Amino acid sequence: MQFYQKYIEIDSSVRFGKPVILGTRISVADILEMLANGMSFKEIIVDFPQINETQILACLKYASDKERKLAVAV
Fold first, then answer.
1. pLDDT digits over 33-50, tens only?
2. Out of 12, 46, 47, 66, which could bridge 17 as a Cys pair, Cβ 3.0 to 4.6 Å?
3. pLDDT for res 67
4. Do 21 and 51 contact (CB within 8 A), yes or no?
5. 3.40.50.410, 1.10.760.10, 1.10.10.10, 2.40.30.90: CATH of 4-73
6. Considering only CA atoms, which of 12, 44, 7, 11 is closest in space to residue 22?
């Protein structure tokens, strides 16, 4: 997934400017925490039926890209 920007937005008027899934108030951090706590994609989608697997993958790609940029900046 190269174009996670298509699925993730940052808007200062939504969730205090945290990155969220486009068109929702579900933050990337919320999704990452659910995955870290062992939830499957299917379980997350059951809890949040307005999102899909592609959007969850976009959250992972966003986190990966952010980490890569931080590692280079140091």
1. 999 999 999 999 999 999
2. 12
3. 83
4. yes
5. 1.10.10.10
6. 7
